[in-house]
Amino acid sequence: xxxxxxxxxxxxxxxxxxxxxxxxxxxxxxxxxxxxxxxxxxxxxxxxxxxxxxxxxxxxxxxxxxxxxxxxxxxxxxxxxxxxxxxxxxxxxxxxxxxxxxxxxxxxxxxxxxxxxxxxxxxxxxxxxxxxxxxxxxxxxxxxxxxxxxxxxxxxxxxxxxxxxxxxxxxxxxxxxxxxxxxxxxxxxxxxxxxxxxxxxxxxxxxxxxxxxxxxxxxxxxxxxxxxxxxxxxxxxxxxxxxxxxxxxxxxxxxxxxxxxxxxxxxxxxxxxxxxxxxxxxxxxxxxxxxxxxxxxxxxx
Length: 301
Ligand code: CP
Known about the structure:
The chain has helices spanning 12-26, 50-61, 82-90, 106-112, 131-145, 164-175, 205-209, 233-240, 244-247, 270-273, 280-299, and strands at residues 39-44, 65-70, 96-101, 119-125, 153-157, 180-184, 200-202, 214-217, 255-257. It is α/β, with parallel strands linked by helices. The chain folds into two domains: 12-130 and 284-299, Aspartate/ornithine carbamoyltransferase (Rossmann fold); 133-282, Rossmann fold, CATH 3.40.50. Helix 4 links the parallel strand 3 and strand 4. Helix 2 (50-61) packs across helix 11 (280-299) and helix 5 crosses helix 11. GO terms for molecular function: amino acid binding; aspartate carbamoyltransferase activity.
């Protein structure tokens, strides 16, 4: 339990314990001395707004010393490898590394070479995993719909193929026993491996919305996409964009979620993103609480 790489092997009891602790932090409690004297570094080789800043804030609220690392202004630009970068910062006495990288498996690979006593937390690797996003999405769902997921119909929509968020959400929803997991998107943006095992898969968004309790919209990840996977943004919006009239097809009280950053006017309209059903900013707030829980769990002596 030194690192947090993904959610697929996390026992339900541990996940529920982290969510319980995160809810405690979300209610305004703190633990100012939990990581006093512990140094952590946000080691980001890919851009981020929410994940990096909320991890930094979470670590500060636990009393840690926090270093920020930005690949674009570091010696990475002179050719230093990720592993040499990790070892260099480890040598300064840093014990916790929050790592984002564009390659699948990069964080696990770094963790395998980390010094004894160092913990790595995956802040998103390639298309593989974004475990703290998965946890904050589960915390948001619990706040909206209660802790019993067994009757919940959750619909994940859009670019699942390129989405580490979707993969972590799917693992977490399975661990927590979600009643029905629906996945909807164009065939070109749905994975054809076992990512979607046990899910109800559809290409018809309007039909998939019927009776859904939570609508988890995904960003169209054009930076990870080869040409031709979507015809045009207008076509994508027509077929898979969440509009007000589509929200009304879902179950009464359905919540709308999006991990951000949003492509407004593509996968979601302004009216929905900023509307009464939107829990998008609550997800951001929950990110701080979840990351406090995870950092405390892994780094507290
Ligand atoms: N959801 C998410 O990972 O956002 P950032 O890329 O801004 O961290």
